[in-house]
Design goal:
Layout (H helix, E strand, L loop, with lengths): L37 H14 L3 H5 L18 E2 L7 H5 L8 H26 L7 H25 L22 H18 L14 H14 L3 H11 L10 H4 L10 E5 L25 E2 L1 H4 L27 H6 E2 L4 E3 L4 E2 L9 E2 L22 E5 H14 L6 H11 L5 H4 L6 H16 L5 H8 L2 H10 L21 H6 L11
InterPro entries: SusD-like_N, SusD_RagB_dom, TPR-like_helical_dom_sf
Organism: Rudanella paleaurantiibacter
Family: Belongs to the SusD family.
Amino acid sequence: MKKILFVLPLLLLFSCKEEFLDRGSLTQLAEGNFWQTEKDAQLGLNGVYEVLQARVMYGGNLNGTAGIPQHDSFADNTFNNYKFEGPGNFVEARVDPATSFFNEFWTANYRGIARANNAIANIERMPKSAISDANRTALLGQARFLRGLFYMNLAIHYEDVPLILAVQSLQEAYVPKNANKEVSDQIIADLKFAGEALPATYPANQFGYATKGAALSLLARFQLYQKNYPEVVALTAQVLTLGYSLNASYDQLFTEAGEKSREVVFSVRFSQDQSDNGETFSATFTGIPKVNVQPMRNLVNEYYATDGLPITRSPLYRAATPKLNRDPRLAASIYFRDDIFLLDLNRPFTGNTATTFGQKKYIRNAPSPSGIGVGSPGGQDFYVIRYADVLLMRAEALVETNQLTEVYPLVNQVRTRVRMPKVEDVEGSNLSQAALRDIVRHERRVELAMEGLRFFDVKRWGEVEAAYKRATDDRVAAYRPVYRGRMSEVFPIPQTEIDANKNLVQNPVWK
């Protein structure tokens, strides 16, 4: 499969002074003869996309700083056993502003912002003889989509952060932080621009670039976080007209064979044969599946029986055979004891994790035809947004605006894809707003588990403390979640940035 590999040629590489506020983080690209043609502009944009592949971003990790694919460990879905990677220590309150995770995640997002700003500045000033107005607008749409995505990561996790919208000189790099409202307004402006500027599709050989659907869906996600529910309803209504659909097989979707499904709205693309490919979220060890992301028992118990009832109420559930007669998404997402997790070695999972469960979703279970081992970088794309998420975002916004009629068919689309019963057939019709809210939140959890969205959900719902309690109640050996109020819901500004920039002050939560 040919993939767009967002790798920057040597001409475009930033200098080693790329750390934000580390005296050169926002240095300009070497201009020379570059930014002269439309091809140059697209190559420059590839350098912005390339930041998404970093392991602290969407590349994930197997033994290092955690990436976004591991962010479910910031809540109650998974346990980060290799606590030095970030999430495990965060939940156990053994971090401070000097913890390296916060700096690496901050730096990667600002690296992307710096590259996006550079692309925007250069594309805007390219002469009309070099690029048509329509193509200029579309390329600017890609750059602003990416800038919006990077700032969204910062606004959700750090909240008040510096808002930088232009290429900076060294002298201009000492900037204060902006209020979250200012940053949020800019995210919305960038994504609105992208939604109007980007095409709905690209030719097959350009698969992977941001589209109109990606921009509208990401904007809907951010508006959901802002609790601007009418906007979510309006935005998702547009996405529903763009030709997306659910993949017939939930299992197949999270493999390389599912990467071009019409369910994928936006993905970060990887190729197993690329030497500097950063994808390790699908990697595992040969003796234990994905040891640093261990599904929690409270997540496993959230999956209903096949009659659509919770396991506490279903006559189909048997504790002795807990995987049988369950929502098929459970077996597609989680390894149970004695499941074969390495097909080439016929190796069974012995339950040798702290939680006794293993991650299955996204995880490779055999070497590739090219001989790359299961613990090496792979070629699986990571889905930042997929259509099932769009349907459930719309359902949530409709619940919160008390428009309940359409919630049923939206949830039913997601359920019946895996042959689970419809809402009306189990919970009934004419349900209350509160009852439908619980249904939608349940569906988000089991549909999107281990896709990096759980912290986003529980923080938005005001349920971080409840999530910590669920994790505590699982009684995982040597795991002691400690809820510290807002300190458990917002990242500190990295101490290295505070030390380097006298105009930057720490989030008061972390003082």
